[in-house]
Amino acid sequence: MHKITIIGGGNIGLSLAKGLVKADYCRAQDICITRRSLASLEEEKAAGYQVSENNVEAVTSASYIVLAILPQQVRKVLDEISPSLKPHQIVISVVSGVTCADIKEVIGQDKTVIRVMPNTAIAIGQSMTCIATDKADENQIQAVSHMFETVGAVVVINEDLMTSATALCACGIAFFLRSIRAASQGGVEIGFHAHDALKMAIQTAKGAADLLLQMQSHPESEIDKVTSPKGCTIAGLNEMEHNGFSSAFIKGIKLSAKKAGGLYND
């Protein structure tokens, strides 16, 4: 059984740890989670996970080392653990805007680095995770892909698209949540109680996504099925488009991608 060390016990780190155990990928005792303050990991410790505030000790026996920290913390953590890393270990970076080259510059060119961009739906095993690398071999990419397939869907992409993946998939969670919130607010305005409107908006959004996933269809073909001539659906869609709905969504994704690319340097 592979040992995994997750440096950073924040939302993504903890969600990954719990997701891997829930999916029977590994046992809780095979995962070590590190954080500067162990007080916030009491629940995980009680559940059987190893916890540590010493990154150097935590990485020594791990097959996989997951960096689930802020871009601004990367250099300090890498400087700290670099002397302890072995060539057979795989470093998995979940850090936005930090390239494989950035990491290897600190830990050495002989190390294997794979970048991974999940989103917060990893907490329920529904992440859209993008994976990229510079020189990892196919077996290593497959091994990491398998790890993250236990907590959602995986796409392997070129590394130069990772900041774009951050915007579309990681930031994208917030964009779709905001659109659901807007739909529920519209529901209140046309007469529903807030809790009913939200439930209706959530289930309708879920139904729309599942339609595309299960039917393997294009959004426009499903839209065509609910837009009749002179009907209420096309009237609503056109009003949204006149007010820049698609344009605003696209611009938001583009700006997030631009911002994601500069996080490490900022």
From TrEMBL:
It is found in: Cytoplasm. Gene3D superfamilies: NAD(P)-binding Rossmann-like Domain, ProC C-terminal domain-like. NADPH binds at N55. Keywords: Amino-acid biosynthesis, Cytoplasm, NADP, Oxidoreductase, Proline biosynthesis. Residues 3-96 form the Pyrroline-5-carboxylate reductase catalytic N-terminal domain. InterPro entries: 6-PGluconate_DH-like_C_sf (IPR008927), NAD(P)-bd_dom_sf (IPR036291), P5C_Rdtase_cat_N (IPR028939), P5CR_dimer (IPR029036), Pyrroline-COOH_reductase (IPR000304). This is Pyrroline-5-carboxylate reductase. The gene is proC.
